[in-house]
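User: quick one, sequence for these tokens?
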């Protein structure tokens, strides 16, 4: 069994963050571990408060895991401040995990800033060069690159720019395109490939970025190539959205265990 570590914030409503990551790891037959960077008070309607974890505690969590357990891949999600980013980067440089998937979480779906604006450049400088794969959506890619992204050629330009910051590969997610589709662009520093995806009319999209990046980490740890992992993870998230859970009054969560529930005869549509 592969061992996956998520470094991210906690979501009290269970649809995103650490909770979504661990569910995704379990759904992929891997053992999930966590380093919590922040505790958020949130539900399907939005984020109301965030408490950052002290950087020394982040470091201690990272060391505690790596000192005792083999880590086959790391997924990084919400890291809101400069000090936290530097602690994580130092931990990765110390322990040198083979696979690092970075989801540069910046703003919640409800508009809450999850990455302090002054910390964005630190993320670019410290974490991008350590990443096997970075998975920005269009607003996140715009903040990293510093230019507007509105069409497919802009996504290709952004992917190239992000690899020039040091990331080995980039998946620019097209969910915010105005074309009515959700096509993503994968660039490995030399070759690019488009991965097509239909736009699903659903309000159950809470935690999709967290879920996708965790699925990618799990699939890469299990030996898939970058393109294979992207296609598999995208298919997994698509199914999870299509079968989203009717929960709360806002943006509901995806269903991380659809296939397992179906096989066990437990699934209710």
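Assistant:
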């Amino acid at each position: 069994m592969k061992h996956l570590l998520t470094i991210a914030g906690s979501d009290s409503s269970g649809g995103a963050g650490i909770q979504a990551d661990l569910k995704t790891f379990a759904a992929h037959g891997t053992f999930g571990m966590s380093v919590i960077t922040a505790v958020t008070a949130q539900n399907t309607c939005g984020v109301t408060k965030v408490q950052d974890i002290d950087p020394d505690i982040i470091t201690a969590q990272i060391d505690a895991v790596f000192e005792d357990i083999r880590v086959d891949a790391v997924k990084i999600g919400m890291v809101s401040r400069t000090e936290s980013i530097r602690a994580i980067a130092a931990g990765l440089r110390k322990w040198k995990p083979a696979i690092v998937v970075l989801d540069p979480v910046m703003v919640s779906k409800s508009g809450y800033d999850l990455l302090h604006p002054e910390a964005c450049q630190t993320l670019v400088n410290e974490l991008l060069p350590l990443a096997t794969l970075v998975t920005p959506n269009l607003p996140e890619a715009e903040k990293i690159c510093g230019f507007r992204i509105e069409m497919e050629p802009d996504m290709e330009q952004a992917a190239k720019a992000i690899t020039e910051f040091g990331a080995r590969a980039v998946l620019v997610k097209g969910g915010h395109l105005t074309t009515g589709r959700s096509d993503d662009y994968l660039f490995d520093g030399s070759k690019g490939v488009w991965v097509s995806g239909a736009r699903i009319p659903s309000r159950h999209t809470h935690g999709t970025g967290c879920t996708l990046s965790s699925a990618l980490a799990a699939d890469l740890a299990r030996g898939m190539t970058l393109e294979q992992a992207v296609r598999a993870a995208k298919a997994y998230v698509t199914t999870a959205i299509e079968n989203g859970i009717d929960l709360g009054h806002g943006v509901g969560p995806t269903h991380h265990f659809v296939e397992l529930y179906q096989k066990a005869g437990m699934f209710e549509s």
